[in-house]
Write the structure tokens for this entry.
Amino acid sequence: QARHLFNYNIVLIGFMGAGKTTISDYLSTCFAMDVVEMDQVISEREGMSISDIFEVYGEEHFRNAETNLLKEMQTKHNVVISCGGGTPMRECNVVEMKKNGRVVLLTAKPETILERVKDSHDRPLIENNKNVEFIEELMLKRREKYMAAADIIIETDNKTELEICEELVNSL
Ligand code: S3P
């Protein structure tokens, strides 16, 4: 039996473009942890992009897939789970995350988020709304739930991946 560095999972949450995928890849490289990139797993299982899932089956279907995937994670330890930006909006998802995970909220200013998402094309909620006002508004709507879910909060503006990871690991 391999010895695990952490006997819990690290669950990364935060707005689109907050850096969840980047930081989870970094953590997995540094600590030889497996990563579950929720969007990627769901997209692979459904055999289509996130945008197509939203278009063909609707958002509710995608949200149910997120909930089911989180439930599957309960048997795992020492895994980095990179959630979708909307995953903490469901109370039941937050309960699942907290069962054996440390929930880390990555934050960034709307301007930073815009810069990071402007060239991506598989984020249906934002695809036709790539401006600071829209991002700020959606962020405000989500803020309370993000904060309630978080065990640790890390600001990512003007920080390198290394700095963010150091801060994260030091606060675990
Ligand atoms: C969403 C964020 C996306 C993806 C989907 C919905 C959201 O994930 O799950 O497009 O509701 O904020 P990222 O945060 O990885 O972009």
